[in-house]
Structure formats: C-alpha cells, structure tokens
Amino acid sequence: xxxxxxxxxxxxxxxxxxxxxxxxxxxxxxxxxxxxxxxxxxxxxxxxxxxxxxxxxxxxxxxxxxxxxxxxxxxxxxxxxxxxxxxxxxxxxxxxxxxxxxxxxxxxxxxxxxxxxxxxxxxxxxxxxxxxxxxxxxxxxxxxxxxxxxxxxxxxxxxxxxxxxxxxxxxxxxxxx
Length: 177
Prior knowledge:
Number of helices: 5
Distance between the termini: 64 Å
Oligomer: single chain
C-alpha cells in the first residue's frame, strides 16, 4: 500500500470513529434530556391541548441525512419549548443535538454547493442558534452551517451546546424587556 493510500485510510477511519462518537453522544444526551425534561414535555403538551386551537404537534417536512425527507414534529407554541419533541428525532437518528439548521427538501440550500449540509444530520441547535439566529442575514447563517459541516468535531458540539441555553435566555429576556 502506498503512503497516500495509508493516509487516506487513516483519515476515513478517524472520520468514522468521530461519527460513531457523535452518534453515541447524541443518543446518550438525547435520552438523558428526554428523561430529565419529561415533566416539562408533558406539561407543555397539556398546556397546548388546554389552550385549544387544534393539534398539539406541528408537522414540517425537512431534509435529513443524505437529503432523505422526514416529518419534523414540534409543539404548537411560539416559546422555546416548541423544540422539545425534536429530542425524539435525535434519539432515533433523524437529527443530531448539534448540526445545520433543518431545511425543507426544496430549499435552495439543499442543492448545489449547499448540498454539503446534507452530509450530516440537521441539528436541534447549531452555530446559527448561538450566533443571533433570526437577527443574522440568511447568507451568514448559510456560511455558519457550511463551516460547521466542514469542521465539526465533538469539542465544537460541546461548546455550541454550552452556549445554546444562555443564547435562548438572552433572546427571551430581550423579547420581554
């Protein structure tokens, strides 16, 4: 085997191990969060039900890993609690705790250069979430997602997760100020 083939084989094995570690982290973290947040999930579902207005869950078709579409479920509420059902998608493998923003399969960023984003699972949170989310121009969110796809590693995921709750709290506090 040539040195180039050995080097390529090592990179592939390292990438496979990293994906396995990320998936194991997603399953463990998603399951733990589901267990800890179960009372909040049930309370939110009851609140939405008692508030009337139809179904408890909102359905939206998004592009998953490899562009495979799946139906993403969120609570029918405008609060950050709407995202709690996404933990189920993390545990079953349709989403990741951290990844690019979920998009519809027909979105322009799921084609051409942006198709790279489909090489990883969409995330419950990501660089777009901690960097201003709706305050950012679309092009900047797109760049953040593609940078994540090209350079992600478990340490980056941990940093993003650590910064997500404070980012959500800041936005929520600003909204009520």
